[in-house]
Request: fold
Amino acid sequence: MQRGGGAVAGWLDGERCEKTTGRIALGAAAISFFLALALLYLRSTNQIPEQMELGTWLTSGAYRIALNFRADAPGLALSLVGSYFSLLVAHVCVPPALQALLSTPDNRMQGLLAAGHVCAVMGYWEYQPIVESFHVPIVVTGFEPVDILRGVLACVEELERGEATVVNAYARAVTREGNVPAQQLLKEVFEPVDLAWRGLGTIPLSGLGLAPSYRRFDAAERFETAGLVSSESALCRSGEVLTGRLDPRQCPAFGKECTPDTPLGATMVSSEGACAAYYRYRHGQ
Ligand code: SF4
Reply:
């Protein structure tokens, strides 16, 4: 905060002939910052949904400008435009990761379910070259149980027909093009970077970093984190789980050293992870 305040003050110093404008800008930045902070707190404690409309900014004729808040990548990008704080960015891009996984010599994946919430923003046009290159069907799938079943069914039908296309089984939320304004905003604020994936290693251009014009918000640069290194548990075999080469139950640490309360790898951390799902539904095996 101190450094952030100093930088803002530095910008204002550069506009001595515009003191009033500078004070208004500083006040607006502070209000945006504290508003974003309060909303992030409410979201983290589940007091508000992931997306909500805060109200109407103004109406003019047929136009209405609404104030919305989303606690995802586009939402953070919007917050960045209006407020001043540091971001430790860890967003990932799905298509480069899929290409890397499908390119592994011992790949066993025959079909993929694409996450519907990602496709609601990004669309599914990026998957077309992947199904053509690897001849593996990709089905855009929602998260309700019936959506998952519909996605699995569509994937099995593709395989039985010997086809490999992109199927949209979540048409009520996803279009081929996706949310174009959100994509443009992401493009403005972020740029592709190489990213180290837990269990998989570094995949070129599979992550998002802040674009040069927004890099002053980057916590990794601002707080000098370059020397920090993360390490993975030697017991964890999540890379094999992620590539379909290992059933989570075959991992010696499954249910012992590694549980959802004491996760050793990414696939046990997330409730959507394969290891966590096998652990949760292990009863009755
Ligand atoms: S059970 Fe735990 S340790 Fe084993 S692969 Fe899964 S996340 Fe890694």
Q: What stands out?
A: Residues 147 and 255 are 29 Å apart (CA to CA). Confidence is low (pLDDT under 50) at residues 1-7, 9-17. Residues 238-280 form one domain. The first helix runs from residue 2 to 13.
